[in-house]
Automatic annotation (TrEMBL):
The chain crosses the membrane at residues 449-467. Residues 1-21 form the signal peptide. InterPro entries: BatD. This is BatD family protein. Pfam families: BatD (PF13584). Keywords: Membrane, Signal, Transmembrane, Transmembrane helix. The keyword 4Fe-4S does not apply. It comes from the Bacteria.
Length: 591
């Protein structure tokens, strides 16, 4: 009898050991049926700790929260219980029956998978209007608003969009993240940097609220008609007060995830009037001043002067072309250098743009630079205006006299013309008597080159051996090869960017790849480690000047933004030149 009792105890112990040793890894959902406007919680739970957890791709959901990890230990009747959970909060993208595919985990060298879970997503359901429901309270106490400065601007007139997050006094916000950035199609856009988030008091629907300004954007519409400003959407963690209180009588807060949107806005853009539009109008809209300024008006031949065509004021300064100088053909003129000194704030672009021409006169005389004009649309008077520069005369005091022109065989001297007299000696430089000498024949056999061609292959054998060893060492240097490859790719993509000037999409893709591969070569970091803060920190540690680092970070931002905003060929050329210059400066400064 005692023997049977002992056997039973042993079997019971073994059974309990097997139960506790059995690995469980399963997926659990908060509900199997939900509306498309509701959230789903998915828990991946295991009873033993594991490594290399890989969640499913959630292709038909938007992940609005998670992964959150929780671990618990407990002992019951001397038996240890362990639980580890990875939690995700999901928002469905579409209706229908949707599968949540398998997650995987590695436990003690074995790979375990969850079962596929199917949930049904129905049409939007009415949210409960229950004052005790945290979701409902959050929906009533937090709002995202897009404030647009003007709903019916003219083409190329600046408007601003300010995004404000309003929160009621009794509700709190832990953090937020943007889940859907607006793409401002058919607008030139620029975000204005916000230094720090400042909480302010205001009114929403006549009630007291607190609010923060999340984003400020300046837009210039690039075509007329009804244009849509896409909504900004945020995922927000909201702290909602409950009816429960803690030991000290304070209300216990409940956390909920909520997706909020500013909603889309329609802007009715007015075309510029056709009546009175100048023939040379190039799209300038705003309030401008126009000048043509020369560095000097008197000089000697072969000296140079600068002529600057400049527009200053407030308006779409980066979105139109400056008029070109019309100069006499006897003046040597170089392609203008474009410069911009423009800042953007809530009033739009302000500053100046200019084209600087380098002019080199070759002959003595007086040369007029004819008056040129600049036309723009004035928003205050809603009419076109024209500004003329006035004629400028360049007086070349010393130098050779111009004796001919290619056009009409006339010379210009102090403004007067005289006929050019052709000389009979004008072709005297052509030789008519040949001075020919005979050349002795040479033979290759037994010549110096003959013996060299026999000996050189033998002498080259040691050199080939040394080169082969160097190549083997180089091939074995895996890390060095990655750096050299990245350096070559940077040069190649920079070259591709230059070839793609004028094609915005291809240009900025190539430029971004060039900058990334340059960083890989210089900082020895992988693409997955790229963050602007880390790049800035590494460059500063390597003794690169702050202004050069700022310019490099600015180029990376330009590459990200430029694909979604209108960009002129001039701006692309400037970004290319800035990239080449910045890379050169980093090469010189980096330690």
């Amino acid at each position: 009898m005692k023997l049977f009792k002992h056997i039973a105890i042993v079997l019971l112990f073994l059974a309990s050991s097997l139960v506790t040793a059995q690995v469980k890894f399963e997926a659990k959902v908060s509900k199997n049926k939900l509306g498309i406007n509701e959230r789903l919680r998915v828990d991946f739970e295991m009873n033993q700790d594991g490594d290399n957890f890989v969640p499913p791709d959630f292709e038909n959901f938007t992940v609005v929260g998670g992964p959150n990890t929780s671990v618990s230990h407990s002992w019951l009747n001397g038996v240890r219980a362990y639980s580890k959970i990875y939690s995700y909060f999901l928002a469905p993208k579409q209706r229908g029956k949707i599968q949540i595919k398998q997650a995987t985990i590695e436990i003690e060298g074995e790979i375990y998978k969850t079962q596929v879970v199917t949930v049904e997503v129905t049409q939007a359901v009415e949210q409960p209007k229950d004052g005790n429901n945290a979701e409902y309270i959050a929906s009533q106490n937090i709002h995202l608003v897009a404030e647009v400065s003007k709903d019916n601007p003219y083409l190329n007139e600046a408007i601003t969009v300010v995004y404000k997050l309003y929160v009621s006094p009794d509700t709190g916000v832990d953090n937020w993240r943007e889940i859907d950035n607006p793409r401002y199609n058919d607008f030139w856009s620029q975000n204005i940097n916000i230094k720090g988030i400042k909480v302010e008091n205001g009114k929403f629907n006549g009630e007291d609220y607190r609010y923060v300004v999340l984003r400020k954007t300046v837009l210039y519409p690039q075509k007329s008609g009804k244009l849509e400003i896409e909504p900004l959407s945020l995922d927000v963690v909201v702290n909602v007060p409950t009816n429960k209180r803690d030991f000290f009588g304070q209300r216990i807060m409940s956390q909920v995830h909520r997706t909020i949107s500013a909603g889309s806005r329609t802007i009715n853009v007015k075309p510029l009037p056709e009546a009175g539009k100048p023939l040379d109008f190039s799209g300038a809209v705003g309030d401008f001043r126009f000048n043509v300024i020369t560095s000097k008006t008197e000089l000697n031949a072969s000296e140079s002067l600068q002529a600057r065509v400049e527009v200053t004021g407030n308006g779409n300064l980066k979105l139109f072309q400056l008029p070109r100088l019309n100069l006499p053909s006897s003046l040597e003129v170089y392609e203008p250098e474009h410069a911009e000194n423009v800042t953007t704030n809530l009033n739009g672009m302000q500053g100046s743009i200019s084209d600087s021409y380098t002019i080199v006169p070759q002959f003595k005389g007086k040369y007029p630079i004819p008056s040129i004009s600049f036309s723009y649309f004035d928003l205050k008077t809603e009419s076109y205006k024209r500004i003329s520069s006035g004629e400028i005369v360049i007086d070349v005091l010393e130098g050779p006299t111009n004796s001919s022109t290619a056009d009409n065989n006339f010379a210009v001297n102090n403004g007067s013309k005289k006929e050019v007299v052709l000389s009979n000696d004008q072709f005297a430089f052509v030789k008519t008597d040949a001075n020919l000498t005979s050349i002795e024949p040479t033979y290759f056999f037994k010549s110096t080159w003959f013996w060299n061609s026999l000996l050189l292959p033998l002498l080259a054998i040691p050199l080939v051996i040394v080169l082969r060893r160097k190549k083997d060492e180089r091939d074995a240097d895996v890390y060095g090869n990655k750096i050299r490859k990245a350096d070559k790719l940077a040069k190649r993509y920079l070259s591709e960017a230059k070839k793609a000037l004028g094609n915005k999409e291809a240009f900025y893709i190539a430029l971004e790849k060039a900058l990334h591969n340059y960083l890989k070569a210089k900082l020895r970091i992988e693409t997955s480690e790229f963050t602007k803060d880390k790049i800035e920190s590494l460059l500063l540690k390597r003794k690169v000047q702050q202004e050069v680092v700022d310019e490099f970070i600015g180029l990376l931002k330009n590459c990200e933004l430029a694909r979604y905003t209108p960009i002129t060929n001039v701006e692309m050329q400037q970004d290319y030149e800035k990239a080449a210059r910045t890379i050169s400066l980093i090469d010189k400064q980096i330690n």
